[in-house]
From TrEMBL:
This is 3-phosphoshikimate 1-carboxyvinyltransferase. It comes from the Bacteria. GO terms for biological process: amino acid biosynthetic process; aromatic amino acid family biosynthetic process; chorismate biosynthetic process. Pfam families: EPSP_synthase.
Length: 409
């Protein structure tokens, strides 16, 4: 039975906002510590280097936030690029909005996608409209630069808002840095203002916590999580509520969150996860392994993340015999259908350069000993200590060459 206390990594979403906000004050605040993961490392490097080429790897937040940040650095021209996948994650809506604010941005290669060549200038801002159904990161990027625009920003969000808690996180952190905003209905207004430097401590990552909730659900172990904040700015703190229907109760004991098994399983899970897209893989894999049919909606944005997560989940769960349907490119559904699988061969889970595929599927080893996770080091995007932490609670791991192993069977 897995047992132990996990010291969770810090939130990369908060870290990357805090680094931008601090940079906008001329780095005059003191940030105690930021997340130690790839997505934050690339942000730190990009903000400290003076070269005209910036490579942000696979970090969506860094790509979107830095596009707005560099657009408002007068006199500086920067080309920003990333991994091959990043160069296929759309950015046109943000570029269009920034152009309406006065920015000068060119597409280096494919229209609508990174790499971007950004000629920094003073942004005028004003009254603009932005479809908010593709990525909240575009909204957050605009908001953080908004108070420094000549006329501030009145941003009308159309087409339905995805990942809303991340927008609230941005506004909440801007408030910590002394900037007021108004968010009424679908309009966010930020008047021209200055950021005040502050000292800040980044809290632990609730998205990372989700994998330990999953392990608890699949094992009824004795696990505690350290570093989380009770009144978190992270919408993924909702994981605690999602898992009450998946057999996990969680309770604070001082500053530690204790996970406890509970007999209460919701017989069929129906959820809208449009506010917690990063929890989808954890919840879907948990439901399948517990044998709980599910209909999970609000997943349209999963197609443009580190990989197409809808397809990746469907294909990898099929290797475990679960027949999942993708409905309208927005929902995942499982009514209990299973297909035959070859149990004489080891199960190899492909991760598609997606840290959350590795982390959400690893706990399946509790049901299928010998499970292989391909390209396991992909977890460094947000949680480099993940495998160490698994070992610390009693899991064993070993490095194998999956292809050689499969070929020799
Ligand atoms: O603003 C952020 O920190 C994030 C917003 C979400 O992206 P979308 O807004 O693109 O859904 C989330 O999936 C991502 O991991 C982090
Ligand atoms: C979607 C994610 O990250 P990003 O969009 O910032 O690359 C994630 O971490 O799950």
């Amino acid at each position: 039975m897995p047992e132990g206390i996990i010291d969770l990594p810090l939130s990369k979403s908060i870290s990357n906002r805090v680094l931008i906000l601090n940079a906008l004050t001329g780095n005059r605040g003191r940030i105690e510590r930021t997340a130690e993961c790839d997505d934050t490392a690339v942000m730190l490097t990009a903000l400290s280097q003076t070269s005209d080429e910036v490579n942000i790897g696979a970090a969506g937040t860094a790509m979107r936030f830095l596009t707005a940040y560099f657009a408002m650095q007068p006199g500086r021209t920067v080309t920003i690029t990333g991994t091959e996948r990043m160069c296929n994650r759309p950015i046109a809506l943000l570029v269009d909005a920034l152009r309406q604010c006065g920015a000068s941005i060119e597409y280096v290669d494919k229209e609508g996608y990174p790499p971007l060549k950004i000629h920094g200038c003073r942004l005028t801002g004003g009254d603009i409209t932005l479809p908010a159904s593709v990525s909240s990161q575009y909204v957050s990027a605009l908001l953080m630069t908004a108070p420094l625009m000549e006329h501030g920003l009145k941003l009308t969000l159309t087409d339905g808002i995805v990942s809303l808690p991340y927008i609230k996180m941005t506004l909440g952190l801007m408030k910590e840095w002394g900037v007021d905003s108004d968010f009424t209905d679908n309009v966010i207004t930020v008047e021209p203002q200055h950021y005040t430097p502050v000292d800040f401590k980044v809290e632990a990552d609730w998205s990372a916590a989700s994998y330990w909730y999953e392990i608890e659900a699949l094992s009824s172990g004795d696990l505690s999580l350290r570093g989380l904040s009770r009144n978190s700015l992270q919408g993924d703190s909702h994981v605690a509520d999602f898992f009450t229907g998946l057999g996990v109760n969680s309770e604070w004991d001082g500053d530690v969150m204790e996970l406890m098994p509970s007999p209460d399983l919701t017989p069929r899970i129906t959820l809208d996860m449009s506010e917690q897209p990063d929890l989808a893989q954890t919840v879907v894999v948990t439901c399948a392994m517990l044998g709980l049919p599910f209909h999970i909606t609000g997943l349209s944005t999963l197609k443009i993340k580190e990989t197409d997560r809808l397809t990746a989940l469907r294909d990898e769960l099929r290797k475990l015999s679960f027949v999942i349907d993708i409905v309208d490119d927005n929902a995942l559904e499982w009514e209990g259908a299973r297909c035959p699988v070859d149990t004489s061969r080891p199960v190899v889970i492909d991760t598609y350069q997606d840290h959350r595929m590795a982390m959400a599927f690893a706990p399946v080893v509790l049901y299928i000993p010998g499970l292989i996770i391909r390209n396991a080091d992909v977890v460094t995007k947000s949680y480099p200590e993940y495998w160490d932490h698994l070992r610390s609670i009693g899991f064993t791991t070993k490095e194998v060459d999956a292809d050689t192993l499969l070929n020799n069977i």
